[in-house]
Structure formats: structure tokens, C-alpha cells
């Protein structure tokens, strides 16, 4: 395995740990929001508002979850030596890949599609 490939796997592992271990409470809230159909997973690893009529409480919850994710991504960036944007992109791909049937995700063009 090349050094670059090993570094990428390290980033993927860090993101996996962040998403599955470091944010358990937020993950439950994110699941509830995704189940409502009002939010989905963006390309950059953050939640996005799918339904423009989403209320203030949904928007506040999304902002809170995204703030927690941003902190986790910054930590993974520091630990791996990768740019935060790279960590965010890897996390976004992983979260979209793990999306359940019926979840909203952004496609490569940034359009919302339902799984």
C-alpha cells in the first residue's frame, strides 16, 4: 500500500469514528430530521435543508448538528494533516453512501435526489 493510499485510509477511518462514535446524540437527531424528509446529506458532509418551508426549529437543529460536524472535521483534519475540505468531502461521500432508502442526498451536480 502506498503512503498516499495509507493516508487516505487513515482519513476515512477518522471520519468513520467521528460519524459513528463522536456524534451519537447528533446522529439520532440527524436521523429524525432525515426521516422527516426536510433535510438531507450534502456533498460537503453537512446536513442541508431540502424542504424550503422547513421551520425555524428544523433549521436550528441542522445548524447545531453541522457545528458539531465542523468541529469533528477540524479535529480529523488536524490529526490527519489533510485539508478540512478534503475531510468534509470524504465524510460527505461516506454519509451519502450510507443513506437509507427514502433519504435525500445531493448528487454530484448538487441537486437533491431521493434514495
Dominant shape: globular
* DSSP summary, beta strand count: 4
Q: Roughly how much helix do the residues carry, as a percent range?
A: 55-70%
Strand content: 5-15%
The spatial strand order of the largest sheet comes to 2-1-3-4
The tally of domains stands at 1
Structural class: alpha+beta
Global mean pLDDT: 86
Rg over alpha carbons: 14 Å
Main sheet characteristics: 4 strands, mixed
- Can you count the helices? 4
Q: What letter string, H or E per element, gives the SSE order?
A: HHEEHHEE
Unreliable spans are none
* N→C terminal distance: 34 Å
What would the keywords be for this entry?
4 helices; 115 residues; 63% helix; alpha+beta; single chain
Structure, described:
By secondary structure, the chain is α+β, with helices and mostly antiparallel strands. The protein has one domain. Helices cover 63% and strands 10% of the residues. The chain contains four helices and four strands, in the order ααββααββ. The protein has helices spanning 3-22, 24-36, 56-80, 84-97; strands at 39-41, 47-49, 104-106, 112-114. The chain has a four-stranded mixed beta sheet with strand order 2-1-3-4. A hairpin with a 5-residue loop joins β1 and β2. α1 (3-22) crosses α4, α2 (24-36) packs across α3 (56-80) and α3 packs across α4 (84-97). It is globular.
Briefly, what is this?
By secondary structure, the protein is of the alpha+beta class.
Furnish the topology, listing elements before pairings.
Layout: H1 3-22, H2 24-36, E1 39-41, E2 47-49, H3 56-80, H4 84-97, E3 104-106, E4 112-114
Parallel strand pairs: 1-3
Antiparallel strand pairs: 1-2, 3-4
Amino acid at each position: 500500500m502506498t503512503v498516499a493510499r495509507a493516508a487516505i485510509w487513515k482519513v476515512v477511518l477518522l471520519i468513520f469514528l467521528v460519524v459513528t462514535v463522536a456524534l451519537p446524540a447528533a446522529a439520532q437527531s440527524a436521523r429524525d430530521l432525515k426521516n422527516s424528509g426536510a433535510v438531507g446529506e450534502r456533498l460537503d458532509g453537512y446536513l442541508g435543508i431540502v424542504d424550503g418551508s422547513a421551520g425555524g426549529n428544523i433549521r436550528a437543529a441542522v445548524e447545531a448538528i453541522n457545528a458539531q460536524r465542523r468541529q469533528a472535521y477540524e479535529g480529523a483534519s488536524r490529526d490527519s494533516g489533510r485539508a478540512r475540505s478534503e475531510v468534509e468531502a470524504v465524510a460527505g461521500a461516506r454519509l451519502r453512501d450510507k443513506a437509507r432508502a427514502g433519504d435525500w442526498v445531493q448528487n454530484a451536480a448538487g441537486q437533491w435526489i431521493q434514495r
